[in-house]
Write a structure and sequence with these properties.
The structure is a single chain. The chain is mainly beta and about 450 residues long. It has a single domain, classed as Outer membrane protein transport protein (OMPP1/FadL/TodX) (Porin), CATH 2.40.160.60. The chain is built from 3 helices and 27 strands. The strands form 3 sheets. A 14-stranded antiparallel β-barrel has the order 1-7-8-10-11-12-13-16-17-20-21-22-23-27. Strands 5-2-26-25 form a 4-stranded antiparallel sheet. It has a two-stranded antiparallel sheet with strand order 3-4.
């Protein structure tokens, strides 16, 4: 009888492993799994002026930023992220089903504690995020630019005996965004820009499976490796005068399609062996969508040497509503993210003609609601406090540095999930845990040049 559920088991196990890692960067330096450290200069003022300022370092946020430049500009940098957090089990339960076999035998179900290591520290690994780009004028009204970033990238590692092992084990997600763009300035004070976002995604994701018959049998394990290329777009507007810089931009959502291989192994009880749960699926295809964002920013020059900056960003996280597995499985795992805001305020102070200090603060609201938070993404609302500096070494070459501290709110980890969902082997994971002491330190170092 269980062999009749072979196709459903493929979908249930594949979806579980895909979900185990796509969104686990929650202790990085932006809500959910977005990384906003795409410029060392921007990091230093908590991303408070990026939509409104002119220059190559701002073109990730607004392609209109390169409009009106008078010479070649280039920048590059690396950001080091050190996330820290603790997650502890409170009362997570594993509920196994009662099974009636064709022989008439009944295998009783059970409701048991998850077992294993009840506290886990720092599941998200330290990371190093490079970024860079350049821009140049084609005519006095037209400019072109290119920036290369990694907006959704992280690595997590949970131990094989962690209380969270059925949600996440080893995870590695990398996105590489190549953004070529053009900006047109019909007047010196106005700039219009548009860009294409070409993104390559590579993911390696795994987690453990509770044996559906009894905890006396060893856990199973599932592993997915896949990649894919996808395309989005950006466009924006800027206005400048002697006192005020204004800017607004839109970055589209991008639907990512991964193609790879799924391996499920390690299950040893006779019923799951008969059902053929251990298997290799090649190709395995998954699909998810990263959010759009709208940025609105302003900069006010109180005096020529001192500028205050403000920016509001709306993230369209509702696009990350589910993870789907393509035909022939045709299954979906709900994520139920919500669109949320980030608010930034900062300053730039030219202490001397060569030396600039900057700082800022950002309030970033998590897209994950109570009841939807699991060990993969124990995210919370956060405050980021930033400081930075630039020093002009020569007329053409300068250095940028930044430091950020992000405090992440403690939250319950409370999303119920299921292994082998929709089949007679469906095993519930009633998650009950707690995230606490979550924060991140971020350091950036880079350089810029003009000709």
């Amino acid at each position: 009888m269980l062999l009749a559920y072979d196709r459903a088991l493929r979908g249930a196990t594949a979806l579980a492993v895909i979900a185990a890692g796509l969104a686990a960067a929650s202790q990085a330096d932006a809500a959910a799994f977005y990384l906003q450290e795409q410029s060392v200069k921007a990091n230093g003022r908590a991303w408070s002026g990026e939509a409104a300022e002119r220059g190559a370092q701002q073109q990730w946020w607004n392609p209109a930023a390169i409009g009106g430049i008078t010479g070649f500009q280039a920048y590059g940098g690396v950001t080091a992220l050190y996330p820290r957090a603790r997650s502890s089990n409170v009362n997570t339960r594993v509920v196994r089903p009662t099974l009636a076999l064709p022989t008439g035998q009944v295998v009783p179900g059970s409701n048991s504690a998850v077992g294993g290591n009840q506290t886990f520290s720092n599941p998200v690994n330290d990371g190093y995020l490079p970024n860079g780009g350049f821009a140049f004028p084609i005519t006095d009204k037209l400019a072109a630019g290119l920036t290369v970033t990694s907006p959704y990238s992280f690595t997590t590692n949970y131990d094989s005996d962690s209380w969270a092992r059925y949600s996440a084990d080893k995870t590695r997600l990398r996105t590489y965004d190549i953004q070529p763009g053009l900006a047109f300035s019909p007047a010196p004070s106005i700039s219009l820009g548009a860009a294409v976002n070409v993104e390559y995604v590579r993911a390696t994701l795994s987690n453990y499976l509770p044996d559906p018959i009894s905890a006396a049998f060893p856990d199973g394990h599932q592993y997915l490796k896949g990649d894919g290329w996808d395309v989005g777009y950006s466009f924006g507007f800027q206005f400048h005068n002697e006192k005020v810089d204004l800017g607004a931009s839109y970055k589209s959502a991008i639907k990512h399609k991964l193609k790879g291989t799924l391996i499920v192994d390690g299950l040893a009880d006779p019923i799951t062996l008969a059902a053929g749960v251990n298997r290799t699926i090649d190709p395995a295809r998954a699909q998810f969508t990263t959010p759009w964002q709208v940025n609105v920013g302003a900069r006010y020059h109180i005096v020529p040497s001192f500028t205050v900056n403000a920016q509001v960003t709306r993230f369209g996280w509702e696009k990350f509503d589910q993870i789907t597995l393509a035909a022939p499985v045709n299954a979906a795992l709900p994520e139920n993210y919500r669109s949320r805001y980030a608010y930034s305020l900062g300053f730039d102070w030219d202490v001397t003609p060569r030396w600039t200090l900057r700082g800022g603060v950002q309030r970033d609201l998590s897209p994950i609601a109570d009841g939807e938070r699991d060990p993969r993404v124990p995210d919370g609302n956060r405050w980021t406090f930033a400081g930075g500096t630039s020093y002009q070494l020569t007329q053409h070459l300068g250095l940028d540095a930044s430091v950020n501290y992000t405090k992440i709110a403690s939250n319950p980890i409370d999303k119920a999930t299921a292994a082998y969902a929709g089949t007679p082997l469906q095993t519930l994971i009633l998650t009950s845990g707690q995230l606490y002491k979550a924060h991140a330190l971020v350091f950036g170092l880079g350089g810029h040049m003009t000709f």
